[in-house]
Amino acid sequence: MIAAAPGDRAVEDALASAGPGTRIGLVVADDTGREVVAIRPDDRFVPASNTKMFTTAAAFALLDTAAADGGGGATVRMEGRDVVLAGHGDARLSSAADCVTDCLIELARAVAAHTRVVHDVIGDDTAFSDERWPQGMSWNNIPSRSGTAISALTIDDNVTTITVTPGAPPTVTGDGYYRIDDRTTAGGTKAALGVLRAPNDDLVRVGGTIPAGATPETLTLGIDDPAHRAAWRLAAMLRGLGVRVTGAIAVRHRPPSPSDDPATRGTAPAPRPPEPPVLARLAPPPLAADLRVTSKISQNLHAELLLRRIGAIGGTGSVADGQQAVHAMLDGAGVPRWSYDFADGSGMSSYNRLTPRAAVRFLRWTQVQPWGAAWRGTLPVGGVDGTVARRFRGTALDGKLFAKTGTLNGANALSGFLIAASGRTLTFSALANDMPGDSSATPAVDKALLAIAAAY
Prior knowledge:
The protein has 456 residues and is α+β, with helices and mostly antiparallel strands. The protein folds into two domains: 8-65 and 288-455, Beta-lactamase, CATH 3.40.710.10; 75-153 and 225-282, CATH 3.50.80.20. 25% of the residues lie in helices and 23% in strands. The protein has a five-stranded antiparallel sheet with strand order 2-1-20-19-18, with helices on both faces. A hairpin with a 2-residue loop joins strand 18 and strand 19.
């Protein structure tokens, strides 16, 4: 139902343009909290990346986002002749040649200054439970940037790249981490390339065509075992610094314990031995900057790491502990438990559910929190930046809409705040599901929001 209000017909017509089969829920509240539009307000929808709103808000509420060292920095230590690289949840550790902050090379230099020969190089991500992919994420996303594995030891956003260079035949090169089966051919008028990699397989099949005169194409691939990848990169850096590596690349994972399962919560996890003294530790930048990036570009990996860091506060760093913290936040916000379900922190899971009314209640609650203004500042701005940089540009909402997007198979979402024609701030949540084929409900939702902004 739509509450009686100016512009009702324009809103109805806009939403109807999404076509048959599409289900859209829309709630809009004015600056007093009165609902001026309510369409399917209590239907549950797959919210896609609107899930990140709850994860990042919990991070603002529970983590020290302004800490000078950012928290979660990687460490390196010696255990006899073995080098152990341990992660603690930082999302920004980099092995890039042009790295200027939070750089793996600094840890490599510390090892090189300590010894010229090492045995095994071990990646240790036991700070969090080994839950690399959320329940309900499509398996076909795993080889991609969107579905790369989550680990307490993260390096280079847990992705690597391969380059396809035109030629007769084309050549495909990587950094050596994955084996490559090159099936590309020269031809066509523009590059049409694809990659296939089965989960937990190190063989990448690259196929398709690329014109002889085209520029090289870069393809990005997800990593299944980030701790192994980080140790592999550290070993390469050590060799480059003249350190002899005589052993293997190894990993240490911490399997989920019974206490990580909500059904058996309360079971004490096995005690962990104290960590030996570290040789060197990195101090990442303040977390607030990463929260901004996470929301603006909808970075899945960073959101998942935030959920686990939240879960490490008095917990084990598991998904279940992170979810418990988010539930407690929403209880405090007065959001009914039946109105949402989250299986992850990023929105990649098709198990997630949310009602538009619950989203609006939550959004309004954030704005009376001490961190509310800072959190709102991380949201993409219509026509200006992030995932809505090209939406609303040149319209009445250019620079006047602050909202989180969401896109998944059969799901579109947009929730946040907009400044209406009257100058009043409206809070809204638009959730769309069940679009047929590859169609999108985004144009219909944008038309409806513009009609509402004009009416108020």
